[in-house]
Specification:
It comes from Asticcacaulis endophyticus. By secondary structure, the protein is mainly alpha-helical. It has two domains: 44 residues, no CATH class; 195 residues, no CATH class. It has twelve helices and two strands. Helix 4 runs antiparallel to helix 5 and helix 4 crosses helix 10. The longest helix has 20 residues.
Length: 256
Amino acid sequence: MIEFKPKLWTGAAGGLMMLGALSACGEKPKDGTATTTEDAAASADAANTAVVAGGEAGEGGAVLAYSSIPESSRLTLRLQHIKGFLLVGQKVAKSADGTEGAAIVIGQGLSEALDPQEPKLAAAGLDIATVRKAAETGSEADIKAAIAAIDAAYAKNPGVAKDTAIGMAELTQGLYAEVLKEGIIDPTEYLHSQGAALSLKDLVAREKSLAPIKADVDALAAYWPTTLAPEEAAKIVDKSKVVSSVSRIELAINSL
């Protein structure tokens, strides 16, 4: 059964709480001076900037994905990022986890990729209420409506397809790097990275200019055969294969 996995210490408030706690315990930097509330606030603000830029609770892979492409295509990357959660949620809804599991996965996605940028997305024409409904019900009909809302907003704010594809490839690679840590598989990150791969595949299917990379992207998406992560580390696709596949895709994109 899929469970909601909140990510701790995200955003400015979380960063301030953590740094403030260190200060209260007498934690001092190497120069021996005490950490002040102002120092904590400044550090938290810097951390929050990274979180908002990349979404996904500030995970390194997500931040890198957004920073690796021009500002002009970051909105379309954001839309595809959110769409990935809807696409994998669509698959979960058809699995044993059903609509309840789908709602959880989509809800996680919105908290990490939509919430930090909701005002900007609303201003860009995204029907926020329709997208949020998919997270409330997990029903296939509501997920389809949410996907249509994403596509409508994408059409109003076209970025550069090549840049968006590179961002999605980086996002897929970055999230997959979080799946296996110290021999333990994280099923949530498995789904998140799968969603990114599905969204990249979706982007390539819709953008004619990206047709030449279809075979490579299909091969990448095939690394996630089901929504259920393997229970044994030995059975999961090695991250080096994902990295190699993404490198091949990015090289092909840059040659278009």
